[in-house]
Amino acid sequence: MMKFLWFVFLFTFVLMNIGHSQGNDLWPEKVDALYTLDEHVYRVEKETKAKYQVHQVIIIFNKDGNQYANVHISEDNFRKCKEISATLWTLDGEKIKEFKTKDFDILKYSGGGVFYEENARQRVANLSHNHYPYKIEISWEMEHNSLFFWPHWLPQRDIPVLKSSYTLILKDAHFPFKSYPLSDSLTASEQKIGDGIRYYWELKNIPPKKTYSQIALPPDYGILFAPGRFTLGKYQTQWSDWKDVGNWYNMLTQGRYLLPEEAHSLVEELTAGLTSEKEKVAALYYFLQNYTRYVAIYLGIGGWQPHGAGEVFRKKYGDCKDLSTFMVALLKEAGIEAYPALTPTRDAISLIKEFPSNQFNHCITMVPLREDTLWLECTADYLAAGDLPPTVEGVNVLVVEPNNSKIVKTPVSKPEENCWKSVIRGSLVGGGRFEFQGDIIATGNVAWKLRNLIIEIPNDYRDRFFQLLLSEQAASSDVQYDTENLTENYDKPLVIHLNGEARKFAKVSSQRIFLNPVMFNAVDYDDIPDEEKREKPFYHNYAFINEDSLILKFPWNYRLEAAPDTVSIKTDFGEYLTRYSYQNEELVFYRRFQIKRAKITPEEFDEYRSFLNQVYKADKAMFVFKH
Length: 627
Known about the structure:
This protein is α+β, with helices and mostly antiparallel strands. The strands form ten sheets. Strands 5-4-9-2-1-10-13-12 form an eight-stranded mixed sheet, with no helix packed on it. An eight-stranded mixed sheet has the order 27-28-26-25-32-36-35-34. The longest helix has 16 residues, at about 605-620.
């Protein structure tokens, strides 16, 4: 430890000679902050003991950079922070303030309907300063008692990094481990150290990660690590392939699919009279949705071991693993085969199939029926059996079967399954007000999203709910609504009946009315990615179709003076169509916007941006009526 701190001191002395004049000249573009140094050292002493040391130097250039002065270091039963220190400097090398371990607050995880293990906590501090620029140097050391939590090296951040390195020191040179470089240019230098070995990786001038996506993408730079063998709690294992990973999870769930006697009779009652397995799955899934509630639980061995199905039955709550275990147990009781599936959610992890390791943050259930395979998201309250939310569509999951676990990709919904269709009728009255009534019919992921919004929104805000959905010109509205199939019949479309008044729907002058008829789903400028080029695919949450019809009656003798051209755009990835008619003082406007698939390739990206720009302009177009 003293050698590490002495090295930190020497390097700090060198860094203090970086003069103020260099400041923002360290990076060719203007930035709020940057890392001049980001060092990681992982020292494996044995299967149940490792040390992780981090040393970072950050320059904060302005107030917007202060977010990088917040420190959060997590601890639990397997990872303990042994020492932490930080120093604030001017860029001329003058010490501003020093922080020791005792100066960092300890916050225990608690509340919010989440259960944490007793030792789960964070060490936190706000190191920000009010004179710019300034420099933060921070070092900390963690002690791990399980290699399950072997840290990866992911040096790319949302601000530049001038230098990042990862040093791996194995006390036993033959200790088994795996690594997966995320780019071909990353190679390690090696050095024998007695009976051990030292590996060293380094990168310089790492650009910030700017690529926007609605789902997680693999990092551009870095290395993933995994132990060849490890111990977590009382369970020892080794992972050479995905079957090994599944066998390990099977060990954790052994004996946990047992249900109490009263649950046996309940399953029999719920499935009585149902002839098909699909009907039985739907009945038991609907029971689980109404009987249990989701609670995040980080107890036991790192939150990885599910609670038994009997315990979930008694307590009526659980996390994703618990609820999947309960679901599998219910189905087995009904004579239906089912398996848990360890899952990466699309918004957090991009699973690498070639690297069997811990790449999961969720669990769902797979039911291989004779006629079809059903997937069940057991934490979702407002889905039909067999439907998946967009976070777990099209992802590689590990289906955990006895001695035959394998990677399987979950299905992806089609655009015609995720539809929004609105028909709004009304009259334009004095002052540009639009009195209207109509219906919205939603299916698939669109309905799931709306159900979550409507049900979960506090009662005090429900009257204002539709202001979140309305386009700019209709946002100032008073809306009342009623629903069908909101809290039941999730296999049927969600229907929303509307009536209300948009107070500023049209702009009125002495002789003219200016009106934009796009009431819902307008493409906003912020929806257009600002990247001009892209090296990785762009993803939507899901493919969809939006259809909106507006029938608007004018009470006065107005004629159509000017109208935008109708639009018809067809591409491989999307379509946009508008048409209208105006007769007998009635405007009928129709708009259809479709994203055919979630994935937009880098080669299509320029055309995709052009497509959205055309839609944006069309959605802003005005009709002009003259008295």
